[in-house]
Amino acid sequence: MFKVTMFGVGYVGLVTGTCFAELGNRVLCYDTDRQKIGMLNAGEVPFFEPGLAEMIARNAKAGRLRFTDDSRRAVEESDIIVIAVGTPMGHDGHADLRYVRDAAITIAKELNGPKLVVNKSTVPVETGDLVATLINEYRAKDFPVEVVSNPEFVREGSAIADFMSPDRIVLGCSSEKAAETMRHLYAPLDVPVILTDVRTAEMIKYTANAFLATKISFINEIATICERVGADVREVVRGAGSDHRIGTVFFQPGLGFGGSCFPKDVTALHRIAQSRGVTPRLLAAVLEVNDFQLHYSFGKIADHFSGELAGRRIGFLGLAFKPNTDDVRESPALALAELLSAAGAVVQAHDPIARENATAKTGASLHYAADPYEAATGADAIVVATEWNEYKQLDLALLAERMRGSIIFDFRNIYDLREAADAGLTVIGVGRASAVPGRAENRTAGAPVESVL
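RE: above sequence
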């Protein structure tokens, strides 16, 4: 058993700390945000993640998981200190390390013995050196401190499963003693450990996220080509993805990538490359395609209404950047809803979880519905922007009955074209024919196939 302190109770910090407690460690979660700490001590969780609230309650009751805003206590009651603070995108595209700096300085000033400081925040290469330098500069007492890089690879919506059953654990260590401690910390998981140096571990995280973002931009571009040549991107994904070298994970077309990681991390890696004299052509293209995908999707809707969106009622399904989370940070779904609203459309939005966070970002620009059918009431068109499971089995006949129009812009490809046609609906998807084969009535009269896809 280790005494672990988490610096930061944001998404990564709270999930990681709770899972460490679940493995039998004594975990103290520290944050400067007294409101969050107050919520957690009262049994409330500040964000939605499946299974997290139950796991927090179980470990808090067992005495393995506690929360504090006392920095001295946080440092003194630890063997291992995990920095899991936010690294938002700065105005110049680089990762903003102010919270990492603050954490390092706080740790230094409160040192009461030897510590292993683990950087779990997604940070640029050489941040481990920065943390070590700051601790050496500000520490009040001369206790030995070693800095380790241990990047996280959990996904919102499946974070607990990702932590408990990871593909690998990456450890960037500068001594065998630190590596051995970290191996013991993760030993209950019984998974492969990749041991390397600190800078390489930091680069592994950026590389992984940039590659996954690249897969998404790639398949979105392929989807656009499929629309022009009359191919079905779903079958393309199935055929190409059956090759184990490619796979189908993060290989589904849609509105583009979003959330708190991919946009920020690809941009930060792009800036790092430029700062070292490298022209990151591929990374630039990944970002460009992602931006294009959002506006291309908006263009499909606008074109259908001949550019006249003012006053059109749009039933909008999904606002979170992905299902099973309430996170709307950099959400392409929310961005599309805002584009439609700015163009004069009346957006009747529904999301099972993310309404509160969406409202905080958009104010009163969107109208919110209690369920998908209310969102569809009087709608000239439906937009599917987030592939929540509850949207996949909607009664399409009832949906059509509630609507004024008959078009579904299915930007997650969750609906069968024939089933929709049987309900009197036409589906315009991503990378697939919008018309059911042999049903010419589903095409816009006189228009080439490309113009309605």
